Amino acid sequence: MVVLAISLSGSKNLACSRAIELTNISFCYPGASTPALTIADWHVNKGEHVFVQGASGSGKSTLLNLLTGTLVPDSGSIRLLGKEFSALAARHKDGFRARHIGVVFQQFNLIDYLSVKQNIATAAYFAGTLNQQTQRRATELLHKLELPANVLSRQAGSLSVGQQQRVAIARALINAPELLIVDEPTSALDANARDAFMRLLLEVADSSAVVFVSHDAGLATYFTRQQSMAELTAQSVQTVC
Amino acid sequence: MLNTIALESLKHRRTSVMLTVLSIVISVSLLVGVEFIRGQIKQSFTRTVSGVDLIVGAPTGQLNLLLYSVFRIGNATQSIKWEQVEKLAAQPLVKWVIPIALGDSHKGFRVVGTDNRYFEHYQYAAQQPLRFARGGQFTTAYSAVVGAEAARELGYQPGDNIVISHGLGNVSFHQHDGLPFTVSGILAPTGTPVDKAVHVTLQGIEAVHQPASTPSLKKPIVNSPPTAQDTEHGHEHKHEHEHEHEQNADHLDKATTATGNAPHPKRVTSASTSHAAPPPARPESVTATLVGLTSRAAALQVQYQINQRSEVPMLAILPGMALSQLWSLMGNLEKLLLGVSGLILVASLIGLVTMLLASMRERRHEIAVLRAMGAGPLTLLWLIQFEALLVSALACGVAVTLDGVLFSVFASSLSENFGLFLSGSILTLHTGVIVALVLLATWLCSFIPAVAAYRQALHAGLSNR
Q1: Helix count and strand count (H, E) for chain B
Q2: Rounded to 5°, angle at Cα A125 from A94 and A186
Q3: Which domain of life is it from (chain A) (predicted)?
């Protein structure tokens, strides 16, 4: 099934305000004979909220890793926020990712032994934005996410699943990233919790381009644009592993 | 922030971390301890002998003579007669002699029988003379001069009376309490065995070994060279060795002439009035004699004369050569101890690496998260190395502190039982070098788990699935 829906969040000039541009991308895992992912052409505009849906093994995680620079395409170009991201040196990619990209994981992946404050501060530290304002920003974000300020001092591992979700969002947004990548964070939630989570996420990330990856087609309604992995990878790209 | 992450991560795995720390503490404290004791032994020995050109005693091994006469380690097997000391002092190349008689103790501190030449000629460290913190030299035959450490521990002041005991143990059943000595001076600290000695006059020590019931009236039953049993102290209980009272004055004059430092007759008289027996003018024998020469170049010549040509067999040794022999003997033991300590350290570091490697699996998702937040592989490599260094630094700190505490607690015991006189702080340059080397070794070893984290960071991607 292919689902494609695009809508704009805010008035943007699409031609010159692309958050993501993928061109002739091909990626093979070591030892594989066929590419794990090929994308001929795909883009996401700034501020756009895109839902990418696909079955397990369809290449969703590979796509996210390519977008964050932790995997490097064998060929093709990845431009992020107007910058040739795939051509950056590894060190610069790390810096770019820290400053411009927020990531929310499927299992939230908070560092259990750190406090909420430390989890959030870690993201600011790697982005080089850790300062005295960090705690204020964190408190504001937690307030928006309907978490009490006193949760800041609690160990992440001691939080409920719902609280961990929100802290994960706060951590991803502490640097006000232009691009937010979300990897199936609702898979373990019931319907009510899932709805609440989605509303909060898209509300606080309103100004960011969001790429939300999930196998759950029911979430598509929250997004202005929908993209299936099958369609995304259907266009042929000449490649050899 | 990386510090926080590293610290919190270690706290999170506190059980395995504490076991690893314990293992490194044991190895580092062994290394530091061995090195400290080695340094202290050398320093202590080197400090103790200064300005002494020869040590003369009864025939024995040169190490044995050096150890018991200067460092109060072990015991003499024989002694030398007083006449030999006088003859030695009369030699033209001999500038001074310091006779010493060992074998008694006072509350666990060794008693050294000697005369005032000891305080005039004995030097330690870089030819520093002995100084008095309070009081002064022997003034009567029953004077005592107490070393700094002994005075501090026993709370003695000039004017206090003390009783010496037969033998060397802490507890003696034979107290010479009929003839107490009066403290005439307290020596300033020297950092040598002198600090732990109670010095009394040769006359006084001779007197206390005469039976009170037969004060100086009998002729000595035995006037032969002291037996091995006697010479263990140089003046072992000589109940049979009683001098004629009449001879004392004559002997006193001769001793005064011979040494120039025998007790002042008036003072001796004064002391005699307050004690059961007047002191003999001179001892019958002494344990050893420290000798200063008019020229250091003459040392070999005088040594040869004593060793080869003296009528009574005696042994003269050069302290420096004896020390060299001691170092060479100890060298292999040192190497062995350091080698064993080093191997234990290697085992501990392997334990540290194993602990960190084992943690890599459970930290897969943590690494993925840190990567997602912008941590580069090199940052993660450094994070793991920093954790290893923290563990090692903590262990080194604990080990050095532990050694410091243990050595201060057992300093007295080491001194009394092994003659090892500890002085100074454990925070020496050598300790610093050992700690630096341990940290360097840790840093190098930590590359193994750190590179694993680096590779994991490169290939794991953002997801831990």
Answers
A1: 17, 15
A2: 75
A3: Bacteria
CA–CA separation, B93 and B82 (whole Å): 19
Whether ipTM tops 0.90, in short, is no
User: B52-78, pLDDT tens digit by residue?
Assistant: 999 999 999 888 999 888 888 888 878
Q: Which residues contact A63 (CB under 8 A, 6 or more apart)?
A: A37, A39, A52, A213, A229, A232
Tell me if A11 is assigned to some domain. Answer: no
pLDDT of residue B312 exceeding 80? yes
Residues of B in contact with A98 (CB under 8 A): 373-375
Which residue numbers in chain A have pLDDT < 50? 1-16
Max CA distance (Å), chain A: 54
What's the pLDDT tens digit per position in A82-127?
A: 889 888 887 788 888 888 888 887 777 788 889 988 888 888 888 8
Which one, of A62, A28, A59, A64, lies nearest residue A44 by Cα? A64
Identify the pLDDT of residue A87.
86
CA-to-CA distance for B197 and B174, rounded, in angstroms?
Answer: 19
Min distance A225 CA to chain B CA atoms (Å)? 24
Percent helix, strand, coil in chain B, to 5, is: 55, 15, 30
pLDDT at B49 over 80: no
CATH number at residue A214: 3.40.50.300
A9 located within any domain: no
Taken in order A220, A221, A227, A228, is the CA torsion positive or negative? positive
Provide the 3-class DSSP secondary structure of residue B306.
Answer: helix
Closest to A102 (Cα-Cα) out of A51, A165, A176 = A176
What integer is the mean pLDDT of B129-149?
93
Report whether B243 contacts B216 (CB < 8 A): yes
Residue A37 has φ and ψ, to the nearest 5°, of -155, 130
How many structural domains are present in chain A?
A: 1
Going along B251-345, which residue ranges are E strands? 285-286, 288-293, 315-317
**Domain span holding position A86:** 18-232
Q: Which residue, among B113, B143, B120, has the nearest Cα to B263 in the 3D structure?
A: B143
Looking at chain A, the whole-number percentage of residues with pLDDT higher than 90 is 7
Minimal C-alpha gap between A38 and chain B (Å): 18
| A51 Rama sector, left if φ>0, alpha if ψ -120 to 50, beta otherwise | beta
Q: What whole-number distance in Å separates Cα of residue B172 and Cα of residue B166?
A: 7
Confirm whether pTM is higher than 0.80: no
B378 touches A at CB < 8 Å: yes
Local structure of B181: helix, strand or coil: strand
Alpha helix locations (H) across B147-296? 148-154, 202-208, 228-231, 245-259, 265-274
Residues A231, A234, A235, A239, CA torsion sign = positive
Segment of B20-24, B264-268, B413-417 carrying the highest mean pLDDT: B20-24
Position A237 in a domain: no
List C-alpha distances in Å: B415 to A152, B194, B288.
57, 12, 21
**A64, A91, A130 member nearest B376 (Cβ):** A91
Question: Other CB atoms closer than 10 Å to residue B128's CB: what's the count?
Answer: 15
What are the tens digits of pLDDT across the range B232-264? 443 444 433 333 333 333 333 333 333 334 333
Cβ neighbour number for residue B163 with a 10 Å cutoff = 14
Interchain contact, A111 vs B379, CB within 8 Å: no
Contacts of A107 in chain B (CB under 8 A): 365, 464
